[in-house]
Write a structure and sequence with these properties.
This protein is mainly alpha-helical. Helix content is about 75%, strand content about 0%.
């Protein structure tokens, strides 16, 4: 086992331990009856919002591909996006999302640099929106340590912005490293292709609608437990929990995101057992669900490409 795999599995194991600790410490396992009090119809409505989030991400990818000159059908876009959920979810920092660029290159001959450019726009807009919502913590008051999280995220956004505006120089530098050390990319494969402001606005709109569905889903999950919470505050805390999970580098932020979110819910007056239950149920019908369906799509597509004579796994940065 190489160092990269060891670090990955160590982080994943740490996340699982943290999650189990929060469940154990909350006493939820001693009072499972709480789960039987859930309003099932409301929970099903919340699950529908997960499907809406997935659909919007599929449409966003389809839109971007069309603007890059490679129009996809809804079915083709679904295959690419859903298949990426698994490697993206189980990799630190969701770096596995870049496998979409490999899928597009092999099946549709889209230059990898264009695929990476599209993923770059998806990720940076998601991060910007989550950060802007999380900034709301400044207006409702909270511990100073969470301001540090915002500062770190702001630094990351500034860094990504600088990389975009000076992409030619940065990419040349990282390209040399990737080619010599990682052997991932060939020449000119990771240059970011800039898009027009109108296209950027539409991608931003798709992204904010998708995240809006996630905020509403969490509110519905909390309401299914019998707690009517302020949607704005809940969205702020959810965004901050996602940022903390992302910065932890633990795959899908397992344990960290649930623990942080349940802590915020307790700050909103939700009892410990219910807070942990809400966090775990919400993550189950969202992140864990998409990873589950992504697993089957990913392996189906990977098998297809192996049969075609080129395994995307050889190109992916997920080892």
């Amino acid at each position: 086992m190489n160092l990269r795999r060891f670090i990955y599995f160590s982080l994943a194991a740490l996340g699982i331990v943290i999650l189990l600790y929060f469940i154990y410490n909350s006493g939820l396992y001693q009072n499972p009856g709480i789960l039987y009090t859930i309003n099932t119809p409301l929970l099903l409505v919340a699950f529908i919002f997960t499907q809406m989030t997935i659909f919007l991400k599929i449409k966003r990818w389809q839109y971007l591909c069309g603007k890059y000159g490679f129009p996809l059908s809804l079915r083709e876009s679904t295959e690419i996006v859903v298949a990426s959920f698994f490697p993206a979810g189980v990799s630190p920092g969701r770096i596995g999302d870049f496998i979409k660029a490999d899928f597009m290159k092999v099946k549709f001959t889209l230059p990898r640099r264009d695929g990476i450019s599209m993923i770059f726009y998806e990720r940076i807009f998601e991060l910007i929106i989550i950060f802007l919502v999380a900034v709301g913590i400044l207006f409702i008051g909270f511990s100073a340590k969470y301001y540090i999280i915002l500062e770190l995220t702001l630094f990351l956004l500034i860094f990504l912005g600088i990389m975009y505006f000076f992409s030619d120089r940065f990419i040349q530098f990282f390209q040399n490293i990737a080619r010599k050390k990682l052997k991932v990319f060939n020449n000119d494969e990771i240059k970011i292709r800039k898009i027009s402001p109108m296209i950027a606005f539409n991608v931003f709109l798709y992204t904010i609608l998708a995240l809006g569905c996630e905020f509403i889903r969490l509110w519905l999950v909390a309401y299914s437990f019998g707690y009517s919470l302020q949607l704005i505050h809940l969205s702020i805390f959810f965004s901050l929990a996602v940022l903390i999970g992302l910065l932890s580098q633990i795959p899908i932020g397992i344990g960290i995101t649930e623990g942080t979110l349940s802590f915020f819910l307790m700050e909103m007056g939700v009892p410990t057992e219910s807070a942990v239950g809400i966090a775990v149920i919400d993550r189950t019908i969202s992140m864990y669900f998409v990873i589950f369906i992504g697993f089957f799509y990913y392996h189906r597509m990977r098998t297809y490409y192996v049969n075609e004579g080129e395994s995307v796994n050889n190109h992916s940065r997920i080892q």
